[in-house]
Amino acid sequence: MSEGPVATIIRAKLTDGLSPQRLEVEDDSWRHAGHHHEGGMDAKPGGESHFNLVIVSVAFQGQSRLARQRAVNALLKDEMAGPVHALSIKALTPEEAGETA
Fold first, then answer.
1. Spatial separation of the C-alpha atoms in residues 45 and 96, rounded to whole Å
2. Over the stretch 7-37, which tens digit does the pLDDT of each residue have?
3. The domain that contains 71 carries what CATH number?
4. Three-state SS at 3
5. Which among 3, 46, 64, 95 has most CB atoms closer than 10 A?
6. Which residues contact 43 (CB under 8 A, 6 or more apart)?
7. By the 8 A CB rule, do 48 and 65 touch?
8. Collapsing DSSP states into helix, strand and coil, what is residue 29?
9. Phi/psi at 90 (5° precision)
10. What pTM did the predictor assign?
């Protein structure tokens, strides 16, 4: 299944800003059908307003969980002000993810 325009933007910004070793961008909007923030950029029911992210990057070395969340949110500030209503962020170092850098 192809990514929508918001997911594509999220992937590009996180790739440019964090050079992740692994990046998973899951559109979880379908689980929020009927929610008043439903629709995202395309204003389509079930589309691009809620995302689950898994990011594995050496950029997170030495950062607290809060600092990692802030780094992701800073990169996606425009999306969070617009089409994206909620992000679930799992930000890990390669060591924490059991991967080599």
1. 36
2. 999 999 999 999 999 999 998 876 555 554 4
3. 3.30.300.90
4. coil
5. 46
6. none
7. no
8. helix
9. -115, 105
10. 0.83
